[in-house]
Amino acid sequence: xxxxxxxxxxxxxxxxxxxxxxxxxxxxxxxxxxxxxxxxxxxxxxxxxxxxxxxxxxxxxxxxxxxxxxxxxxxxxxxxxxxxxxxxxxxxxxxxxxxxxxxxxxxxxxxxxxxxxxxxxxxxxxxxxxxxxxxxxxxxxxxxxxxxxxxxxxxxxxxxxxxxxxxxxxxxxxxxxxxxxxxxxxxxxxxxxxxxxxxxxxxxxxxxxxxxxxxxxxxxxxxxxxxxxxxxxxxxxxxxxxxxxxxxxxxxxxxxxxxxxxxxxxxxxxxxxxxxxxxxxxxxxxxxxxxxxxxxxxxxxxxxxxxxxxxxxxxxxxxxxxxxxxxxxxxxxxxxxxxxxxxxxxxxxxxxxxxxxxxxxxxxxxxxxxxxxxxxxx
Length: 378
Known about the structure:
Elements: E1 39-44, E2 51-52, H1 58-64, H2 70-73, E3 79-80, H3 83-102, E4 106-108, E5 119-121, E6 124-126, E7 138-141, E8 144-147, H4 163-171, E9 175-178, E10 189-191, E11 197-199, E12 211-214, E13 217-221, H5 228-238, E14 245-249, E15 262-266, E16 269-272, E17 290-293, E18 318-321, E19 324-328, H6 332-339, E20 344-348, H7 353-356, E21 364-369
Parallel strand pairs: 1-4, 8-9, 13-14, 16-17, 19-20
Antiparallel strand pairs: 1-21, 2-3, 5-6, 7-8, 10-11, 12-13, 15-16, 18-19
InterPro entries: AmidinoTrfase (IPR033195)
Organism: Nocardiopsis tropica
Region (Disordered): 1-29
């Protein structure tokens, strides 16, 4: 059920040819255990209907602009992002999709749901947010699609846009799991001693982008978008899939997702954010790996004064295989760093990655990779 996208602009870089070789072995409908083996099938996001939900909602404050004071928050209007942000983002996503196809990857891009529709739960009311980041709400481990219980009310129905695709995967043999739907009442949300929002422990809540996969190992970042109860639920659920180990990362980054802090490039090689991790705080399972410290990010002015992501979203890259990475072309120092380790870089752009809150890893969801449940840490 792949859907077409707009033609790539003329300046789209020519992708390298797919690796030579004979026919690839058949894989299950869903088969993805890691972040770096050969990518075979992927979902790409759609920026259409992307919007800022009502920010009087504590879950929106927590997940969108947690560094702003209540007074600053009141200066941000809810509603659609500027038209040029949505249109240019969709142009960039079309280039990404076409580039992946040129690399031999099957691409699905289901249309975005209408995030302007208002809906409610007991004690709260909101609109939706965006279909730009399919990585955020679905964790793929092996043959399982796991819908995560986001702590953000505006994301409650976001994954419905991918459900026709997931149902097709189900009919072709995948396992489809949905975490317990959270109530998301006010008891889940609190503030710290400085008055900024925090995620509580009233019920399991986490987003899939709090996780990274490494064969039989999964990393889970405890943060504003993933609590300890969410970790416990994920541990118990992954235990049903076999010998899968979950590694909590605590005190690393109190923001949201993990993939602008830790990027697994290939076995034994990891890219780390030096603002959040130091030589003495490398996660225990990765000690002994070769570490690339991400250089400072390059970035100009943004289309709006307050963005959903920090400049570090520029290190949010997508590995097509262990020797090929799709990287923000503006991050020339990062490109040189990766090329110095023998990684072929395909430089592309996501002009509004900070505004909409996602780089190349965020806006994709790999459903088929060639790797299996290897023990990379043994």
